[in-house]
């Protein structure tokens, strides 16, 4: 049986790097990202199923869950899609509450809802869930309060889910700084260019998937 993974935010960054690594080992892939013009060429390259859309949209999550069901369930769900929130990064004293509300939908509620929609298949195949987090979830950095709060919430949900679902491995994964468009938006392109590429993070994720350690928080390096 071919292993199947669903990866959100798969058109660039860590999602793309992981998708390429899994495809090289024969995994079947369901890939999603907002922009079909960015996602479809990736799916064509990797022989993957492209399901473009916004993970915060319930109808889109239903399409993803249906695609997973058509594949007989999932061996791996990677909740990688994420928003940054308000930029330039504001202090909490002036953080736009409506922006934070939308960020919670994308970074917290959407991953949970997608887990709920695919959990039966993950249980049946004793699959694994990777919820991509950040050191901003556990450290207090000026300007990162909104984003960090969403990632802290995602980590708490992950921890409780790990207790409630012993047949599914759940890892909340902190990749550290990576050379991505999101980091460039947050800190500027010059500083972001000095960060490691997402490809350097993938071996840590592949070890998780292959060795299946106990559920928990995992930090790259």
UniProtKB/TrEMBL annotation:
Pfam families: adh_short
Key word Membrane present: no
SUPFAM superfamilies with a match to the protein in the record: NAD(P)-binding Rossmann-fold domains
Annotated InterPro entries: NAD(P)-bd_dom_sf (IPR036291), Sc_DH/Rdtase_CS (IPR020904), SDR_fam (IPR002347)
Keywords from the named record: Oxidoreductase
Superkingdom classification of source: Bacteria
The UniProt record lists the keyword NADP: no
Homology family: Belongs to the short-chain dehydrogenases/reductases (SDR) family.
Protein name: SDR family oxidoreductase
Organism the protein comes from: Streptosporangium fragile
